[in-house]
Amino acid sequence: MExxxxxxxxxxxxxxxxxxxxxxxxxxPPPPPTQWYPYTSVHTSFSMLAWFDKHxxxxxxxxxxxxxxxxxxxxxxxxxxxxxxxxxxxTATDTMLIAPYWDVVVRMIRNKLGSQIGIIxxxxxxxxxxxxxxxxxxxxxxxxxTAPQTILERLVTLCDTLVLGTKVWRHDDPVQWxxxxxxxxxxxxxxxxxxxxxxxxxxxxxxxxxxxxxxxGGTGDPIDMSQDARILVLATxxxxxxxxxxxxxxxxxxxxxxxxDQPRLGASPTMxxxxxxxxPDLAAEFESVPSAT
Length: 293
Ligand SMILES: C[S@@+](CC[C@H](N)C(=O)[O-])C[C@H]1O[C@@H](n2cnc3c(N)ncnc32)[C@H](O)[C@@H]1O
Fold this sequence. Notes:
Elements: H1 6-26, H2 42-54, H3 59-63, E1 67-71, H4 77-84, E2 89-94, H5 102-113, E3 118-121, E4 133-139, H6 148-158, E5 159-167, E6 176-178, E7 192-194, H7 196-206, E8 208-217, E9 229-237, E10 241-242, E11 249-250, E12 287-288
Parallel strand pairs: 1-2, 1-4, 2-3, 4-5
Antiparallel strand pairs: 5-9, 6-7, 8-9, 8-12, 10-11
Helix pairs in contact: 1-2, 1-4
The structure holds S-adenosylmethionine (SAM).
């Protein structure tokens, strides 16, 4: 696959370079009791590049010189690539609660790569970082969350732009599949698989404006792992406002009243521009997501 945008081709070269170096590091066993994270995140970075390229956008414009945080970073491959790709400052976060010793392993890789990324152990559910980030990446985490909406509501407070990637169930209704303990790779930490429409509603109700949202992968059956489908979302955090009636904080475009007070005063439930169709010329493997009406 050849990318159209030269900048994306350059970032793919960086991705392959970092991958080769990390593969070499991972060819030796890590010191016990640590373990290598059993998966790779390289395909996640590749998907983001391919997605931007399909939309005629240069991924470098998103990250160049920007402070980036990689939430649920696992072995931080995305972080190491972002740093190499020109991000201003990169912070990798994950939680010992779910991934014991993840930070020891990432520190080891960081030292061997000569990288400067920050490493913070934090559960994003209640993480209140002292700094604000230009771009937050939250990739492959949401289906591990018992309270995904709470996580989106946390994310909107800590970044200007969110890149979200998660597993989706291709179905038209705004619903989620709830996993039993065996249905999703036999991994008890997997909980919910929303439809694209459900996820759009969740992201918007958390206070983001969705800029780009596309599904790629298989048929999206939630329990047939060979048909895994993923969604990528680029969203902008809306600034907080205070309801002119009750003073409650909210994030919603086009209103001066919070959602509690809008119906009482007869405010329109639709906002121009909010639910417009995604770009019409998406390539076959990226299908546009229905609007959230
Ligand atoms: C499937 S991996 C995704 C790794 C990488 N981001 C990628 O896309 O390839 C999910 C990661 O999210 C982390 N995670 C899950 N819940 C989390 C939470 N509440 N706070 C921080 N990290 C979390 C897990 O420990 C795991 O490392």
